[in-house]
Structure prediction request, 656 residues.
Amino acid sequence: MTSPLEQKKIKIAGPSIVTANRTWDGIVVYRTAAKSWSVDLSEAAIVRNSDEAKALLAESVADDVGAIGPYIAPVQIGDDGKIVPGNLREQIRRTGVTIGQPAQV
Amino acid sequence: MYAYDEIDRTLVNERVSEFRDQVKRRLSGELTEDEFKILRLQNGVYLQLHAYMFRVAIPYGTLATNQLRALAHVARKYDRGYGHFTTRQNIQFNWIKLAELPDALEDLAKVGIHAMQTSGNNMRNVTSDQWAGVAPGEIEDPRIWSELIRQHTTLHPEFSFLPRKFKIAITASDHDRAAIKIHDIGLRLIKNEKNETGFEVLVGGGLGRTPFIAKTIKHFVHGRDILSYIEAILRVYNQYGRRDNIYKARIKILVHELGIEKFSREVEDEWQHIRNSSLQIDDEVIEDIRSRFTYPAYEKLPHMPDELRQAAADPDFEAWRKNSVAPHKVQGYSIVTISLKPIGAPPGDATAEQMDALADLADKYSFGEIRVGHEQNLALPHVAKRDLPALWKALDKLGLATPNVNLITDIIACPGLDYCSLANARSIPIAQELTRRFANHELANLIGRLHINISGCINACGHHHVGHIGILGVEKNGEEVYQITIGGRADENAALGTLIGPGVKFDEVADVIEDVVEAYLALRERPEELFMDTVKRLGVEPFKERVYATR
Prediction:
């Protein structure tokens, strides 16, 4: 399996975060500036260039017990400083499925 | 039903203990994710967008009621109260916690269920006709041979590290309900001129990025030779199959690149070396497997009981019966398909409560047996016709009597971007909207047999290539875009659909499908001409014109 760190170039087009899934239960988590994981996107560390992204990804990959499959994902930051996912996939990961779940309908 | 022996029970229990230890070591950090990944995949555990996904094997789509109750238990205790039946006759749970997986596996093992061969580059769970053993006119029960292959391939080292995953499907009927032509190996049970049982063997079918319809590699392989012949195919694949490029690693690519003639010569050469080996199957082995399948003690019942005659006056019952009830090989009995496609709901999902209640109904009306079909519906294979009205009422109370089997709202859909980490676009909301558009069952019946298949990425878990109407979701410039094909089919006349034009946006898909259907209704020569017949007669052009003329 190719490690994310072996990617030749890590390019980011704007503010980005590192996200993964927590190892013991698989739920979505975000890498924080405190070198930990949070389920709250607002606590995610923001990176703004490739070097920062690579460094954040490297420390995330190193924490293999805490979370799995870390990768860089785009975000948007509103005027109020609120972090929102930068694409539909990350929106769905943050807010859940866009459909009703059978047991709840 | 098939009764597992002590070897199977030991294997399944040992597997649970082994995986429990592996999970423990993973959570402690003793195993890295790179080391653990292949181990979890060998136990059906994927990582999806929101959580781990746990895929459980339902070999050849046959379930006993205690097994269905165990699946309901897992849904309730370890997941979010529902499961998703897949196009490979499996069930998936979408919200499972890794730390709890060993317990879930242990609970399933108590009723002989496991997750082996549901993922990874190995020989996957063998699939078959969900009407196996009860369909009129079938050569014999294909599950006997499915079980033989299951026993031979489970954890077989030669099949555990293949270039890519490998799927086998078996049918024994003229009408192929197992979609054998879109599998790596498709087996069709036949009799030769000496009335001996054997197989037409097809190879190299598959969907995904590069779809192919399987080609016949041998017109008759005697039953006693089927394991050696399959092994010969696998050996040629193992030798020549590409391991350097995941997109070119399936056997379909090898068959295509070598050509079926050269590929079959290679297989024949290999086969001659091994066909008279220990792989030749003794009759006693088959008879032992056959003896472990138990069949109901059917009663002698009338073809048309009074209960059915009286119920026929109820148009709602008749609407359901017409689409959901099929002839059985034994007089007085029927095969009942349970639609898991209620209007507005995700295709293939069932709640724990529905599973439990259906298990009760299967005990009461179907000799304790349930089947899973690749169309993501369930079936009760042994229902006395006199019981059909009572069963229908009970199913209706559970939301399981939608009269849409084989109609336009009986949609196959993958989980798509709502769940799947591979997906580029959502599938389920498209299916939901389409079922709402065609919710009027009279309209659906007027349209007639029409299969819509939806995939949220090119991997084609929703079998979009072989949908009468296929919908493929892709991502373009950050937006979900859907490509529409028509004319595909997955049966004995399997064919790949043809793209009708440029992709359309998420919000436009249902409108486009309505246009396609309206075009069909206007173009068909008579009500009996099915959608596929019209497409075959006229090609895609009239549909393309209709869809894109105003877009």
Remarks:
- Chain A touches chain B through 26 residues (CB under 8 Å).
- DSSP finds two helices and five strands in chain A.
- The first helix of chain A runs from residue 50 to 62.
- The beta strands of chain A are 16-22, 28-31, 37-38, 67-77, 83-85.
